[in-house]
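Task: sequence in, structure out. Protein: IS30 family transposase ISLjo1.
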Amino acid sequence: MDSLHSTMNQHVKGKHLSFEERVIIQLRLKDGYSLRAIARELNCSPSTISYEVKRGTVKLYHGKVKKYKATQGHDAYKAHRKNCGRKSDFLRKAQFMRYVHKHFFKDGWSLDVCSNRATAVGEFASSDVVCTKTLYNYVDQGLLGIYNYDLPEKLKRNTKLHRIRKNKKKLGRSIEERPKEINKRNEFGHWECDLVLGHKSKDDEVLLTLSERMSREFLILRIPDKTSVSVMQAFKELQRQYSEHWNDIFKTITTDNGSEFADLSNLEKVSNTLVYYAHPYTSCDKGTVERHNGLIRRFIPKGEAIANYSLQDIINIETWCNSLPRKILAYHTPDEIFERELDLIYQAA
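Result:
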């Protein structure tokens, strides 16, 4: 009896019953104890005892007698334990895993895009895919054939505090004068502008980049150098390309205070485009184009000469950026949104 009490005192409420406790249940039922009396002795809920008795009851003498057996209850418990817990969907959803692997390496999609684009365009039913978090768990477990060093953004996070420094140069209208509605990204036609440099030699070419804030459409223009003359020449080419629709497509342009953009405000003299200059040393004022510049660096590393890449290479990079589904666009591509807005402008004209 003392041994039974010592076993009983070890039970912690909320934990599963042990085999020794099932033996106590069998003995107490044989002695005529009620379920509540047994529950008080074992320091657990009466429901626990009731469920345990149902699981461990066997029929004897051709079904004429029902009796609880500790061994039967413990065997049922172990069988249920084998089936408990959440099961991995990795093998059951192998077709989707091949889809993720293909688009991750072939098209450069992120895991989030792979997970959500599949359902956004109807290629997979929601029951046939796994969520973004699960895909990252599979990466950590080494199941996908994708590793952390394949994820360019996973370990790259800038935690610097946002600071606005006093504007030392005044090239034109400050970003503080820009309408607050532009920050909501609900209206088409507001752009951000920047330069991407290659090798630091004076004779290397430069990439002029523009990103539309609502659609995330990205333009890459190759220019001979980083002078204001070359920048303005590139914008004149853009004006000729969009001709009479220029004012509807390029309503505002936000850029930094670099000397290469010193003449950009001259666009206001020949069009309705308004040019705004960001705070000095505050790249987050034009974070959209900065983020897209980071995508370029996947193909053209810092310090490598732009001249080493053909015009077709640059076009391919631009095409990849604009055909990449984005979470912020409900997993549509920038090209899809941009073309939709252009159609509306052309129809209105």
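The CA atoms of residues 192 and 286 lie 6 Å apart.
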